[in-house]
Design brief:
About 50% of the residues lie in helices and about 15% in strands. Strand 3 and strand 4 form a beta hairpin. It binds flavin-adenine dinucleotide.
Length: about 475
């Protein structure tokens, strides 16, 4: 099977990655971006990551197409376990791409039936290529979107959603930009999906496809990695982080066998929603794992400060436990009560969105609890430079219930988690990644089954 080294050498493929305005020659040796590379590569070191898929041979468990609650439970487990393996930081490299592939498998069959197309065969062939070669994938769904009150075709600049600009006998040419594409700079492949339902006048924007990350015309502008560069005390961000890009399609050619939606505008919404459901289930699974970071740090900090048995500190700890276990409980219950479409199991959309919305609305309580436990020192502490006589003074005065060195060590992690650029990144991630709050609310309000509640009230009213 593919090794970490195979993966790393495949990243030296002429891809156009930019960091702080400069083209990156070799992402694997870049002083900042190599952390995102190494993080992604850890997937190949994760033990027990393969399973026997019959004719496809041994493939990654991420690519197991869920057919039952058991398959979804296993999917939850691999996402949770790899998050822990990567120090509490989600490893998206085969998760988001498989979320997209499952949605494509379902929706392509429906488009084929309606329009006589052959997308499902293309998706199947692409899936086999990805699974057999053990590839890493990013998924670019979120367009840059311009004026949010306007539809794609109504924008002042027509390129604010990715669109088809040319149709050739051998494929299509696309132009536009997607935002926030996680780990595209270090992925082998990028799957592109529509971000919303489309109308007829938006049909050039109803497009889904896959390209390799070194495709001509693709430009990947990486975000600033402030959590590493802006925090000399960083511990976690030196080990694991993921980076997003503004992903620009500068007249990119896509051959027909990699096009999965072409102007069938009435199917764009279904594709967007199915992907979002899988991806939000992924979110519940990794967020339960990530919560351990905060829980463990909160416990150690409480101990270092000598307050672990105080009642209000227990309340703080319970807030974090609640967050973690609600993530886990909603993931498990969504896995156990799937809906089936085209014989593929989709995590229960209601339970998935309930969990995801809880996460959006409550993650800040996890941060608040850790700040409460830590004290103001996580905002006011210095350090990070070479050991010196002055540092010894600080060690003397920063002792708590444990000695100064030990307390400073855990406070550095607490600061990184609760009072740094990483905190801002995490707060934003927990509110927006995998879809905004409003997206989950719309989905819940629209698809919730109200029958039971209405019948109960009808019975009480004697109607
Ligand atoms: C860390 C991180 C990683 C991500 N990774 C990926 C990824 O790998 N791939 C990917 O495709 N996406 C990714 N995303 C994108 C994520 O799905 C979006 O951030 C999310 O869907 C919100 O979209 P937006 O950021 O454009 O915000 P906006 O849509 O601008 O939202 C801002 C506000 O405007 C509101 N709003 C927007 N449009 C309307 C409207 N028409 N009417 C009324 N209100 C509106 C929203 O509800 C929200 O309140 C990631 C995001 C983050 C933060």
């Amino acid at each position: 099977m593919r090794t970490k080294e195979d993966y790393l050498s495949s990243l030296r493929d002429g891809r156009k990655v930019y960091y702080k305005g400069k083209l990156v020659e070799d992402i694997t040796t870049h002083p900042v971006l190599k952390v995102a590379v190494e993080h992604s590569a850890k997937l190949f070191d994760y033990p027990d990551r393969l399973y026997d898929a019959g004719t496809l041979g041994k493939i990654s468990k991420f690519f197991k197409v869920p057919k039952s609650p058991q398959d979804l439970l296993e999917r939850h487990k691999i996402i949770y376990d790899t998050t822990i393996f990567c120090n509490g930081i989600f490893n998206i490299s085969q998760a988001i791409g498989s979320d997209a592939l499952f949605a494509l498998m379902i929706v392509s069959k429906k488009i084929d039936r309606k329009y006589g197309t052959d997308y499902s065969k293309r998706v199947e062939k692409y899936y086999e290529y990805v699974a057999k070669n053990d590839l890493t994938l990013a998924t670019a769904q979120t367009d840059v979107k311009g004026d949010r009150s306007k539809r794609p075709s109504e924008q002042v600049d027509p390129d604010l959603y990715v669109r088809i600009v040319d149709v050739r006998s051998d494929g299509i040419v696309v132009r536009g930009a997607k935002a926030h594409t996680t780990q595209s700079a270090v992925a082998d492949e990028i799957i592109v999906l529509p971000t919303r339902a489309m109308r007829e006048k938006d049909k050039d924007y109803a497009v889904a496809f896959a390209i390799s990350a070194n495709t001509k015309g693709l430009k990947l502008f990486v975000r600033n990695v402030d959590e590493l560069e802006g925090n000399p005390l960083a511990i976690l961000s030196k080990k694991d982080l993921e980076v997003e890009t503004i992903t620009v399609f500068d007249d990119v050619f896509v051959p027909w066998d990699r096009v999965f939606l072409f102007r069938e505008y009435d199917m764009a919404g279904a594709l967007a929603v199915d992907f979002a459901t899988y991806h939000r289930f992924t979110a519940l699974s990794y967020r339960a794992g990530t919560a351990n970071l905060f829980l463990g740090t909160a416990l150690r900090t409480a101990e270092a400060n000598g307050i672990k048995d105080e009642k209000h500190i227990r309340d703080d700890i319970i807030d974090i436990i609640m967050y973690k276990e609600i993530m886990r409980a909603t993931a498990l219950s969504a896995a156990l009560s799937p809906v089936y479409d085209e014989e593929i199991a989709i995590p229960n959309p209601i339970l998935t969105n309930v969990g995801k919305l809880y996460s959006n609305m409550n993650f800040h309580n996890v941060i608040r609890s850790l700040i409460d436990i830590s004290g103001g020192i996580i905002a006011t502490m210095g350090g990070g430079e070479e050991p010196s006589e002055e540092a010894k003074t600080i060690v003397k005065y920063l002792r708590g219930a444990v000695n100064g060195e030990e307390r400073i060590k855990i406070l550095r992690l607490a600061k990184e988690l609760a009072a740094s650029s990483f905190t801002g990144y995490m707060l934003t991630t927990m509110i927006h990644a995998e879809g905004s709050m409003e997206a989950s609310k719309i989905e819940l309000f629209r698809s919730y089954d109200y029958k039971e509640s209405l019948e109960l009230v009808k019975k009480i009213l004697g109607e």
